[in-house]
Structure formats: C-alpha cells, structure tokens
Amino acid sequence: MDFLILFICSLISIGTFLFMECVAWFTHKYVMHGFLWTWHESHHRVHTHTLERNDLFALVFSIPSITLFVISTSIFPSPYLFSLGAGILFYGMFYLIFHDIIVHQRIKWIPKNKSSYLHRMIHAHYVHHGKHTKENCEAFGFLYAPKKYEPKKFVFKQDRQQTQ
Predict the structure, then answer these.
(1) pTM for the whole thing?
(2) pLDDT confidence bin for 142, thresholds 50/70/90
(3) 3-state secondary structure 68-132
(4) Other CB atoms closer than 10 Å to residue 53's CB: what's the count?
(5) Domain edges within the chain
(6) In which band, very low, low, confident or very high, does the pLDDT at 99 lie, cut at 50, 70 and 90?
(7) How far apart are CA 33 and CA 155, in angstroms?
(8) What's the confidence (pLDDT) of residue 1?
(9) Quick one: CA torsion of 90, 94, 97, 102, rounded to 10 degrees?
(10) What angle do the packed helices 3-26 and 79-95 form, to 10 degrees?
C-alpha cells in the first residue's frame, strides 16, 4: 500500500472516530433516552450485577464495524471501507476504556495522569447520571464536555463512596 492510500486511510479512520462522537451523542440523547429507554434505564440504576441490559447497545453498535470488516476483506476488498470499520472500532475501544473501566470502574483501574480533560469528562458523566429518568438529562457525549463541566474539586467515584 503506498503512502497516499495509507494517509487517506488514516484520515478516514480518524474522521470516523471523531464522527462517532456525534453519532453517540445523538443516539444517547434520542434513542437511549427515547424509545430504547427500556434498555438504557438499567445504566441509570444502582445495581450489583456485572452485566446490565444497557450492554446490549455495545453489541448493536459493533455490527457496523464488523460488517465493514467482513465486506472490506472478503466481499469487496477496500482499504477505505476497512478504515471506516477501524474508526468505529477505535471509538468503541475508547468508549469501553473510558466509560466502563475509568468512569464506572467495571475493572478497578484509575489512571495516574488525572488531566483536567479527564476530570471534566468524568464529572460531566456523573452529572448525566445524577438523573434516574430519561427526561431532563444533560451531557450526552463521551469525547467532549463543555467547560461548564469543569469540576472545582474532583474526586473519583470510589473515592466519593469511601468518604460517605
């Protein structure tokens, strides 16, 4: 593969990754907090089980990426379609690491570098989870949170639980 194709494929993957934030925001606001609240509601409730109905979204969201990988490698070989699938996969990986591991601590791990960006994103997510209904929520994104979500003092979720 020559340099130009590699460069274009990289741009496609990066662009797709960034575009997925728009898709995730829209889907989170209008689908998860809309007609599929029956799946997402489990994510806004306190529970002790490992899996929740909301995890079905991960399966559904993986379908476009898997489909693009299959099509681009066996049916219609195309590095460009493969790059689209890769961008979706990378976004899913970021979501898994950020949302499920760092924010919700499904695997107990806290990054040593607690940047202001990370604090703002986590705080925005905590604000979002402050509501247990599908109405009147805010902060639907995963990669971007406006400055208004910059916490004055930040404490990770498990640290808050230990001090209560």
Answers:
(1) 0.85
(2) confident
(3) HHHHHHHHCCCHHHHHHHHHHHHHHHHHHHHHHHHHCCCCCCCCCCCCHHHHHHHHHHHHHCCCC
(4) 14
(5) 3-163
(6) confident
(7) 27
(8) 63
(9) 170
(10) 40
